[in-house]
Amino acid sequence: MKIALVGYGKMGHMLRSAAEACGHEVVVTVDVMAPDADVKVPAGDGKAVADVVKKSGAEGVIEFTHPTAVMENIKHLLPLGLPLVVGTTGWNDKYGEVEAMAKETNGVILGGGNFSVGVN
User: Which is nearest to 86 in space by CA: 99, 24, 22, 56?
Assistant: First the structure.
């Protein structure tokens, strides 16, 4: 599977290693400040994030950014029609809004507040 990683901090790097070890291809990494991200975008610019992901040829997206950016990212990523996994925390109070966005865009989203092995 071709994966776009949105958020390329410590977890993004770990996700890349795990995905590649399983035979997947990370086609783009997107971040606000990570020096080794493929593409840097302005903070909170979900449209820029979605544009990069769309051009990458990704077949799925993993979003691990920051609570201040997650809703804007979800808002712009869901309409792409790609499966979206969100590991960012801090948006549970917006769950109903995200559910409505997913239904409206016919999008697929999986969110979790803790993806550690011990929890899962």
Answer: 99
Q: Report the length, in residues, of the chain.
A: 120
Query: Which alpha helices (DSSP H) does the chain contain, by range?
Result: 10-21, 46-56, 67-77, 95-105
Q: How many CB atoms lie within 10 A of CB 115?
A: 14
Quote the CA–CA distance of 107 and 9 in Å, as a whole number.
Answer: 26
pLDDT, tens digit, 9 for 90 and up, residues 38-68 = 999 999 999 999 999 999 999 999 999 999 9
Best CA proximity match to 4, nearest among 59, 45, 51: 59
Which pLDDT does position 29 carry in this prediction? 98
| Residue entry with tokens 């550690």 | 116
> Is residue 23 classed exposed, middle or buried when 0-12, 13-18 and 19+ CB atoms within 10 A define those classes?
exposed
Closest of 104, 74, 99 to residue 86, by C-alpha: 74
Report the SS3 class of residue 46. Answer: helix
Prediction pTM value: 0.92
In the DSSP assignment, the letter for residue 62 is E
